[in-house]
Model the fold of this input.
Amino acid sequence: DTGVSQNPRHKITKRGQNVTFRCDPISEHNRLYWYRQTLGQGPEFLTYFQNEAQLEKSRLLSDRFSAERPKGSFSTLEIQRTEQGDSAMYLCASSPWVAEPYNEQFFGPGTRLTVL
Amino acid sequence: DQQVKQNSPSLSVQEGRISILNCDYTNSMFDYFLWYKKYPAEGPTFLISISSIKDKNEDGRFTVFLNKSAKHLSLHIVPSQPGDSAVYFCAASAGAQGGSEKLVFGKGTKLTVNP
Done:
């Protein structure tokens, strides 16, 4: 399978704990995105990398959230001191760089986080 | 503020008929529009896209129409099949003009195709 993969698929944690999610993009895709989706809503943008550089962050990404893509391949999203409001599906997407900016993004299956 | 709006939470059609899903946007900087399909417990799957320099794009049973003056786009599925039953998300990007690669999504429309 050469699609976007995310691990774990499900995570249940207690309020106040730290969690980390991993995303492996499609090979050779240099753009990687994180989104969050809550019930009844569409995905909401969190942050975006081109290679290892984090180019854009949403206001949704509070100080408790940090994302990295150290070698321009896989990425991690860490949430510190989780709150019940962090419960959501966390989606990762990737896209290739081509000369034109019109690139569709390919999504992974997501990591569902439940904070008790 | 909801920059991309899908005002119909659900739509039900008969197999073989046309499904029309609608989407409105408010940000005039958007220049690229996409439709995604999502099944439960899966990530969104790319379906079809259109850039703002076009008013129509067709791919098999799927056609997307863009009306820039009305800031409206629609997805037509003809003929509809039971396997098309899913949640459909409209998304927009301001990449070329706005310098942002992020996608802005609507809340989705749940399509049910009845056999």
Observations:
- The two ends of chain A are 33 Å apart (CA to CA).
- The mean pLDDT of chain A is 92.
